[in-house]
Amino acid sequence: MTTPPPGHPAAPALRSTVAASSDAPSRQVLADRPDGTVVRSGRTVTKTHARDADPQDLAARLRIAAHPLLHGTLLPPLPITAPDGFLTRSEDGRAVSRWPYGSPVPPDDPDAAPWEDTARLLARLHSLDPRQLPGPVPPMRGPAKAARALARLRGAPVPASGPGAPGSLPAAAAAVERAWSLLPPWARDEAPSPRTDTLCHGDLHLGQLVRHPAPDGPWLLIDIDDLGCGDGAWDLARPAAWFASGLLAPDVWTRFLTAYRSAGGPAAGPDDDPWPALEVPARALTVQTAALAVAKAAAASRPLDEVESAVVEACARMTSLPPQLATAGRTVG
């Protein structure tokens, strides 16, 4: 893999670690985005969640992450003296949780990314019976995130078609919209998922892993904001989409898929060909990634870069070929 795909820790959007202030040198802002602000102070990390986070669902997700059955799979939250035990409120009313610090995937060495460890963690998560967890377990929020990405694109300042449009952004936006329209309603968050029997992470990428205890403990999954019951194929969809788009090397994809199946992961289908199970989620994650790429490029009045162009081109292929041919040559046996 020569170019880090969107969502990879080596991608520029995820390299936002900066000092918070000169009078608090031990504090670092690890992430500051609309969906959450993460600040490290020594061995503790504080996350201020999105303003629209449902407090009941978030509290349920935190209880799941703290459950003994998830030890060794999810990083557990730190208890807070509060009614639900894991959440408090910021001055502006946003939900706040606390976590132990873990070492992330090194951003300067993407070839050393722990794909097999990631696959085994997902297999363990997907194999757990949600009925054993404190309920009710909220639905997985993957399709909702995809729909928000399209809403962000539609609100972006994409210029009108013409020679002055940077990087043909209008054509890119149109390709993304066409690919979105071909997805089934459940993948657009317009209908319930046909599968609700699997505990899913909901937003799996390599930025969602840390070693704990730092710096060389075992890998664990983090960020439970989208955790819930749904189709486990959604968690495999981002690496599948990167592979189908040419952003993930075939041998890396093979290692990931083999490790997942060898660990008993149930979401890649029973046969050698994983695409019947992965196709719709992979297309949805491709559209989500492309929508965010076009929205960011439009906001910055710049053309698409090489990686962004690759995912937009994948969207264009989805609309010009039958689904079974759009990933031809990418199927792993």
Describe the protein.
By secondary structure, the chain is α+β, with helices and mostly antiparallel strands. It has one domain: Alpha-Beta Complex (Aminoglycoside 3'-phosphotransferase, Chain: A, domain 2). The protein is 36% helix and 13% strand. The chain has helices at residues 55-66, 115-127, 142-154, 169-181, 233-244, 250-262, 275-299, 306-320, 323-326, and strands at 18-19, 27-33, 36-41, 44-49, 88-89, 95-100, 103-104, 198-200, 209-211, 219-221, 228-230. Strands 1-2-3-4-6-5 form a six-stranded antiparallel β-sheet, with no helix packed on it. Helix 4 crosses helix 8 (306-320). 43% of the residues are buried. Mean pLDDT is 87; it is low at 1-25 and 324-333.
Backbone shape: globular
Assign a percent range to the helix content: 25-40%
Question: What is the CA-CA span between the terminal residues?
Answer: 20 Å
Q: Care to count the β-strands?
A: 11
The largest sheet has its strands arranged as: 1-2-3-4-6-5
Topology of helices and strands:
Elements: E1 18-19, E2 27-33, E3 36-41, E4 44-49, H1 55-66, E5 88-89, E6 95-100, E7 103-104, H2 115-127, H3 142-154, H4 169-181, E8 198-200, E9 209-211, E10 219-221, E11 228-230, H5 233-244, H6 250-262, H7 275-299, H8 306-320, H9 323-326
Antiparallel strand pairs: 1-2, 2-3, 3-4, 4-6, 5-6, 7-9, 8-11, 9-10
